[in-house]
Specification:
The complex is a heterotrimer of chains A (327), B (189) and C (849). Helices cover 31% and strands 19% of the residues of chain A. A five-stranded antiparallel sheet of chain A has the order 4-5-8-6-7. In chain A, strands 9-10-11-12 form a four-stranded antiparallel sheet, sandwiched between helices. A three-stranded parallel sheet of chain A has the order 1-3-2, with helices on one face. Chain A is globular, with a radius of gyration of 20 Å. Chain A is of the alpha+beta class and 327 residues long. Chain B starts with a strand and ends in a 16-residue tail after the last helix. In chain B, a hairpin with a 2-residue loop joins β1 and β2 (10-15). Chain B folds into two domains: 1-76, Ubiquitin-like (UB roll) (Roll); 81-156, DNA polymerase, domain 1. Chain B has 189 residues and is an alpha+beta fold. Chain C is α+β, with helices and mostly antiparallel strands. A seven-stranded mixed sheet of chain C has the order 3-5-1-12-9-10-11. A five-stranded mixed sheet of chain C has the order 7-15-14-13-8. The chains are: A alpha+beta (327), B alpha+beta (189), C alpha+beta (849). Chains B and C meet through α2, α3, α5 and α6 of B and α2, β16, β17, α18 and β28 of C. The complex binds flavin-adenine dinucleotide, iron/sulfur cluster and FE2/S2 (inorganic) cluster (2 copies). Iron/sulfur cluster binds at residues 123, 125-126, 139-141, 147-149, 156-158, 196, 302 of chain A.
């Protein structure tokens, strides 16, 4: 199936890409591995006049260490490398587990970490052809004024469904954003707006260029729990990442994040306090922690798998992840 | 725009619309139709080719993005007109029924074996897990890859042969007599 | 004519694991499927589909589309107004609908342009004026629709067809049964999803003739339909079937693009190719219908089945297609695998505003078989019998006729059952009991039993089920007296060139040049029909396989065969090929008998030679030369096959569907475990024994059996066409229509059982469909064995399983099986009784249950 025509740019420098992206704005799209964007172009979800291919830019790929011991991963690093890198895998097994379950082996070789973090949100009423979307009336996220998932409302609830985001959130990652005014770092959580129709907080001309993993997060116990119907290819329908460390003094450092349930990946707030209380009981009473997850998850009917089941599933995942990391 | 790459060892220069997918460049511009299109949403693997030795979905890559790359398709893996062990095994072991997934399967399997000459069954299954086959239920595909490995290892292919071979030997030893044709009767009087 | 291999040479071919004769074309990438073809001047067509589920078409304005540079023409319903349909009683669809759209995806117009991209860009420029009509997506609601909601004026209440069959006295028999089970089963629609999307290339020749290359299982039906719609004589049309990337029934009736391409080629004055997008393949559908089954089975205390009563509603979608046949199969085969003396079956085929259903692997039987075999498991439990033993006590005693008149000669079911019972360790490993009751709130623990340890339960369970299928329909869809298959075997003739490099047919390998050519109309679609005929002819003529060339499915060259559907090809075309080879052999023998002065019967073909009774020998080629009549260029043996009258069934209304010259049988055991926290089901292994009569090629038979089992597994675990409340197919792509990946596919161990059918070629019968149906109930029954829940609706997705586990948990801890998330088992069959079907029109699209 052919793509509608566009002008293709293949900048060799990040600055050049930023300049093009600034110049063309809404008339352009960024292309990384294309595993999300190309199928969307085929469905007519975007019809950019310009496509800016980040694939020829030197210096956007690779895994390295900063002077302070933090880890840096270029945005164009392939998911496969993130999943298979032996040292990264030893320090951050959680990230390797999440990356290693994305899509299928071939797609992991094509897709990039930056593309994964900037993944468009997904909805059964949105990831469809023009004909399909036309048949029920276009929705808020694309050309329309209604939401088929929450009909009365004015919000889009399309689910953010990337696997590395929750893993990186609980590992306290930050991202470098290159833009017309230079580069800035921000905590990963701040990349996401929470609005399904505009999921990313990126300004005009801004490109995610690197991911930083703090050395302090290395060696944490982790668990990645992914629910999908098939064991390959499928996007997550509910997934959860937990990173946890018991300090020498008995204190617990822990973070838990969700994906594929809400319009953004969600770092669950108040986890550490709740977990500490849970662990004070003997045997530990994890029910309150599970309830915390229950309150954070907002699955709606954005897929053919019922939302109430996806909710139940994430609760099971929470318990399993906790049991695995506390064992 | 002009795109130049190597396909199956031959340098090619094509004048293409920038929106041309690698799959279209191969099938329509180069008439290399062995690479198939099975879906429109990057989810079946029928279009798998090797780009610089790595498996890639030709339906999800812009041809222009492959400028300078070394591309291998199903048409390019036979040597001197002789099919590879993998291709022959798919033929012999029932790994290709309708054959539509076969080029993608073979390329995905080749990518695995090129990097890992001694994979476990689990590794083979993992490597093929982005390729959908609607005919075989994958059992004979796994057997095909195993048989190709056995052949490459010079080992007796017998070990990896499907049960059919053993059955045939048993059958050859002595066929059972046919029943006599009989007039049907009503089971219910 | 119980033919079996007479000689060692034949035995070396028949029953030997044989690579497909066309394998090198597939593995090299050189073989051409329809979309791989290109001819000079070729244009591309794209079809505009309706975005409304039900609407009158007031007008089509293609002006803006025509103005786009590169667009050559736009055709609409007015260009091909002749209605067609595969059944004589169901010619209710046009290639492009002239006045009414009946589902989202219905075919309205076609743009022909210089490239696919231009055609696609022109589609949204076509303006169609629609007048929306009330639409129905639920079959029971459609049956109650007012006239404005009738899809076809001539089908009041949207009932395409209904049939009512009664054999014996089922009501009385049920009244005296020791145990009766009643349940309602819901099977959502599933589709073929063959990997090759449909494609057609049509070209008008300078002399006015038409050549069509198409991805079809039924070149002959396509040929006839093209003649009808284009109003040309069949002789002016040539249909060629290139390689086909799978069919499974989805290409077993004429699909709109096949007609549209030809009409467009005529209008454009240039060749036109149309290749469906994957989404269009889903809209074309013709797959297994959603089926609502209300079923009652009663047995005596000793397990003898006394009667079965069923009420079946099939949601046929917008057009007739094979509909009545699908429906009748659901009844004809219901009571025909076991000895059941009393059967009542009421069947309704209902029209709804959804893609039309049709034939899919296991046509018509699968959903009924699921219901019946799952219910037998319950019945066995009520009677305190082992489910395998219950089946054993109800075997047919062939040769016999079933109560609805189906003739059964060969019956390998007992051996199939014993094979899988033994191989699976059924007696030792089946737990044979249901589970108990856990807490009700989800605290992340799932509905696990409170007393159980924290680790999730993963108890394994085993389930058994059986199925069967026809070896071809004994009655052709259009003519009672049809010849079903004709095959020619030609020797010493120059081989006709495969047309356009695209005709089917397998070249022999590089060894000896072919000595004979098989000319056959059969459609190789990956099932191995070319190889099968090469084997049969080689065996019959004592030739090596490499000496046989198969030329297939080119109507200009090859004789007529009805097509690749209903598992008919090995039995019917195989018999025709065998007869053609024997005819050729007789011609040779007659000539040599004169020369050698011996009885022609005493002449044998063996090892590439023709041998006389007293040591005379000629090479096969020399024998052919000797037998050629003066001046003749070749010898041609002709073989035909038509099913015998005795196999054609009874004479009640609807009796034509179900009869077959022979039936295959399958028994399966599935081993599963259920994650009782999450409801996720894992299938660990399936043992499948299939009675194929005789395995002409065990590699191919195993491939067919495993492939069928696996396709049933997909329906059991993950495949379902889900619809939104507005009638859209929610998952029209391979990402969301979840065909199992290799990681979801358990090992399937196939066992071949050979009952040697007296009428099959070398004893062979069906292998490609019959094993599909058993796997769904085998898995359902195994889930019960593992977790104590009965599931009445596939696919057994985690959400459905979890609901049932929760209901089990909530049920009084009596050890009784839970049936939750499902309809009550006590629902009495009767019009519109019982709760509505869980899924189809629900909003948002959901797995239902
Ligand atoms: C069949 C299938 C299954 C999949 N399953 C999964 C799955 O299980 N889990 C999962 O997480 N994903 C899945 N994906 C999605 C996708 O493959 C991965 O998320 C992949 O990592 C995306 O990376 P990419 O480089 O291909 O992104 P692209 O498609 O190139 O880009 C994705 C989006 O991000 C934007 N973007 C890309 N890079 C940048 C950047 N550096 N800065 C700013 N914006 C950027 C693009 O403009 C685009 O909008 C699946 C995709 C397919 C086709
Ligand atoms: S959540 Fe609503 S607005 Fe957002 S994509 Fe889905 S239907 Fe559209
Ligand atoms: S055709 Fe490329 S993945 Fe299906
Ligand atoms: S062989 Fe037909 S799809 Fe794999």
């Amino acid at each position: 199936m052919s793509l509608p025509s566009f002008q293709l740019h293949r900048p060799r420098e990040l600055a050049e890409a930023v300049a093009l992206w600034t110049e063309h704005g809404a008339a352009a799209k960024l292309l990384a591995g294309g595993t999300d964007l190309i199928p969307s172009l085929k469905q007519g979800l975007f019809a950019p006049d310009h496509l800016i291919d980040l694939g020829a830019i030197a210096g956007l790929t690779g895994i390295s260490r900063a002077a302070n011991g933090d880890w840096l991963i270029g945005a164009m690093t392939r998911i496969h490398e993130v999943a298979e890198d032996p040292i990264l895998g030893r320090e951050f097994p959680l990230l390797a587990a999440a990356a290693g379950q994305i899509a299928s082996p071939v797609l992991r070789r094509m897709g990039t970490l930056g593309g994964n973090l900037c993944l468009d949100t997904r909805c059964l009423w949105y990831n469809q052809s023009y004909l399909w979307r036309q048949s029920c009336g276009f929705c808020l996220k694309k050309n329309g004024a209604v939401c088929h998932v929450a009909p009365g409302g004015r919000r889009c609830w399309a689910a953010f469904s990337a696997d590395t985001a929750p893993a990186l959130l609980v590992l306290d990652a930050s991202v470098e954003i290159a833009g017309p005014a230079g580069a800035r770092w921000l905590p990963l959580a701040e990349l996401y707006s929470g609005a399904g129709d505009h999921p990313l907080r990126l300004g005009r001309g801004e490109i995610l260029s690197r991911v930083r993993l703090p050395a302090a997060a290395a060696g944490m116990r982790g668990s990645y729990q992914k629910f999908r119907i098939r064991n390959s290819i499928d996007y997550p329908l509910a997934a959860l990442a937990l990173a946890l460390r018991r300090e020498a003094n008995g204190a617990v450092t822990a973070r838990l994040a969700l994906t594929a349930l809400n319009p953004a990946p969600v770092l669950v707030a108040g986890l550490e306090r709740c977990l500490a209380a849970a662990l004070a009981a003997d045997p530990p009473d994890l029910a309150a922690v599970v309830q915390l997850v229950n309150r954070a998850a907002k699955p709606l009917s954005t897929s053919t798998v019922p939302a109430d089941y996806r909710r139940e599933m994430v609760l099971i995942q929470a318990r399993r992840a906790l049991e695995a990391c506390l064992a | 725009m002009i795109t130049a790459f190597t396909v199956n060892g031959q340098p090619r220069r094509l004048e293409l619309d920038p929106a041309t997918l690698l799959l279209e460049a191969l099938r329509e511009h180069l008439r290399l139709t062995g690479t198939k299109c099975g879906c429109d949403d990057s989810s079946c693997g029928a279009c798998t080719v090797l780009v610089n030795g790595q498996p890639a979905l030709a339906c999800t890559l812009l041809a222009a993005g492959c400028d300078g790359a070394d591309i291998t398709t199903i048409e390019g893996i036979a040597t001197d007109g002789r099919l590879t062990a993998l291709q022959r095994a798919f033929g012999r072991m029932g790994g290709a029924q309708c054959g539509f997934c076969t080029p993608g399967m073979v390329m995905a399997a080749k990518a695995l074996l090129d990097g890992n000459p001694d994979p476990s069954d689990g590794e083979i299954q993992a490597a093929l897990s982005g390729n959908i086959c609607r005919c075989t239920g994958y059992v004979q595909i796994l057997a095909s890859v195993r048989a190709a490995l056995a052949e490459a290892a010079g080992a007796a292919a017998d070990a990896a042969r499907p049960k059919a071979a053993a059955d045939a030997q048993r059958r050859a030893a002595g066929p059972t007599p046919p029943p006599q044709a009989a007039e049907p009767q009503s089971a219910h009087g | 004519m119980a033919s079996r291999p007479q000689s060692d040479a034949a035995r070396a071919i028949i029953g030997a694991p044989t690579a497909m004769v066309d394998a090198p074309r597939k593995t090299s990438g050189a073989g051409a499927y329809t979309d791989d073809l290109a001819v000079p001047g070729m244009l591309h067509g794209k079809i505009l589909h309706s975005h409304l589920p039900h609407a009158r078409i007031r007008g089509v304005d293609a002006g803006a589309a025509l103005a786009l540079p590169g667009v050559r023409c736009v055709i609409t319903g007015a260009d091909a107004p002749t209605a067609y349909g595969v059944l004589p009683i169901g010619k209710d669809e046009c290639a492009l609908q002239p006045d009414k759209a009946r589902y989202i995806g219905d075919n309205i117009a076609c743009v022909v342009a210089e490239s696919e991209r231009i055609a696609a860009a022109a589609l949204p420029l076509i303006r169609v004026e629609y007048e929306p009509l009330p639409a129905y997506f639920d079959p029971e609601a459609a049956m109650a629709a007012p006239a404005a909601g009738w899809l076809h004026d001539h089908r009041p209440r949207n009932i395409e067809k209904e049939y009512h069959h009664v054999f014996g006295d089922p009501d009385a028999a049920l009244a005296r049964a020791a145990a009766v089970c009643r349940n309602r089963y819901v099977c959502p629609a599933v589709t073929h999803a063959a990997m090759e999307p449909h494609a057609t290339l049509a070209r008008f020749e300078p002399d006015g003739g038409l050549t069509v290359w198409s991805s079809t299982q039924v070149p002959y039906y396509l040929h006839k339909t093209l003649a009808r719609v284009l109003q040309m004589s069949m002789e002016r049309i040539r249909v060629i079937k290139p390689m086909v990337g799978g069919g499974f029934g989805g290409k077993s009736e004429v699909c709109p693009l096949e007609i549209v391409a030809a009409v467009a080629a005529r209008r454009a004055g240039a060749p036109v190719k149309i290749t469906y997008s994957r989404e269009e393949v889903f809209y074309t559908h013709r797959g297994r219908p959603l089926q609502l089954t209300e079923l009652e089975t009663g047995a005596a205390a000793d397990g003898t089945i006394l009667a079965v009563r069923a009420r079946v509603i099939q949601d046929g979608g917008a057009y007739c297609g094979y509909g009545p046949v699908t429906l009748l199969y659901s009844g004809a085969l219901l009571g025909a695998m076991y000895d059941i003396p009393n059967v009542r079956w009421d069947g309704y085929r209902v029209l709804t505003n959804k893609p039309a259903c049709g034939a899919m692997r296991g046509h018509g039987t699968v959903n009924t078989r699921f219901a019946f075999e799952a219910q037998l498991d319950e019945l066995a439990e009520r009677l305190g019998l082992d489910p395998a033993e219950l089946r054993r006590r109800n075997f047919l005693q062939p040769p016999c006729r079933t109560v609805n008149g189906l003739r059964v000669l060969s019956y390998g079911l007992p051996e199939c059952l014993e094979t899988v019972v033994a191989a699976s360790g059924w007696r030792e490993r089946r737990t044979g009991r249901a589970a108990g009751a856990p807490p009700a709130v989800n605290d992340g623990r799932g509905p696990r039993r409170a007393d159980r340890a924290s680790a999730p339960s993963r108890r394994h369970g085993l389930g058994v089920a059986c199925s069967h299928y026809v070896s071809g329909a004994a009655n052709a869809v259009d003519r009672a007296d049809a010849i079903h298959s004709t095959v020619y075997v030609e020797a010493a003739a120059p081989l006709p060139a495969p047309a356009g490099g695209a005709s089917g047919g397998g070249a022999a390998s590089d060894a000896a040049p072919p000595a004979v050519a098989v000319l056959t109309g059969t459609a190789e679609i990956g099932q191995g029909s070319d190889t099968m005929q090469a084997q049969i002819v080689a065996a019959a003529l004592g030739l090596p396989l490499a000496a046989v060339a198969v030329i297939a499915a080119d109507s200009a060259i090859t004789p007529m065969d009805l097509g690749s559907y209903s598992s008919r090809v090995t039995f019917m075309a195989g018999n025709a090929a065998l007869r053609a080879a024997e005819d050729l052999k007789q011609q040779i023998a007659a000539a040599l008998a004169r020369r050698w002065n011996c009885d022609p019967e005493a002449i044998r073909c063996l090892g590439g030679q023709v041998l006389g009774p007293s040591g005379q020998a000629l090479s096969f080629a020399a024998a052919v030369a000797a037998a050629l009549p003066p001046g003749a260029a070749h010898l041609r043996g002709v073989g035909t096959y038509s099913p015998p009258r005795e196999a054609q069934g009874g004479d009640f209304k609807g009796a034509g569907v179900g009869p077959s010259p022979a039936y295959s049988y399958s028994a399966q055991v599935a081993e599963v475990s259920v994650d009782e926290d999450s409801g996720q089901v894992t299938v660990h292994k399936i043992w499948a024994a299939h009675d194929c009569g005789r395995a002409l090629n065990p590699v191919a038979v195993e491939g067919q059996v495993i492939g069928s089992v696996w396709m049933g597994l997909g329906q059991a675990l993950s495949e379902e066409m889900a619809y939104t409340r507005s009638g859209q197919l929610a998952n029209p792509g391979l990402l969301d229509y979840r065909v199992p990946t290799i990681l979801d596919s358990p090992p399937v161990e196939a066992f071949i059982v050979e009952s040697l059918d007296p009428e099959g070629p070398f004893g062979a019968k069906e292998a490609g469909e019959g094993s599909l149906a058993a796997v769904i109930p085998a898995i359902a029954n195994a889930i019960y064995d593992a977790a104590g829940i009965r599931l009445y609706q596939p696919p057994f997705t985690p959400d459905r399983v979890l609901r049932a586990l929760q209901a089990r948990a909530a049920a009084p801890a009596s050890g009784q099986a839970a049936t939750a998330g499902q309809d009550q088992p006590e629902t009495k069959p009767g019009p519109a009784s019982g709760p509505p079907p869980p899924s189809p029109a629900g909003a948002p699209p959901q797995a239902g249950g």
